[in-house]
Amino acid sequence: MKRNFELNEIHEVAKELLEKAPNKVLCLYGDMGVGKTTLVKALVKELGAVDVASSPTFGLVNEYHDDEDNPIAYHFDFYRLNDEMEALDMGLEDYLSSDAWLFIEWPDKIPSLLPEDAVGVFLHFVEESTRSIELNIS
What we know:
138 residues; alpha/beta; 7-stranded mixed beta sheet; 4 helices; 31% strand
């Protein structure tokens, strides 16, 4: 999957991404402000979460649940992480063994902790309201 999209098409992109991803660990790469959190909001909504998605920058992780309070997604923002040990201390391994979707922003902060089959999602600026998205499946 590689395509350009307008920001108003983000929900279509989220749906396509969920359908094409071979597993539930998505690592989101891209510059600050490119729309990683916006994409996660659309992904969470597409999954049917009852929670409203927001950036977990200060808490590192947000949980999202279905209407029966089952966890369906975890959203990590490792921008402020100092080292991989902090991710381990917060229980990343437990999250990785869950059946929920994992959306990881700034995965380059925890390279040795990522599963080998994690899906790389690369976002790039094209124009003010246009982005490109590329799926990298190992």
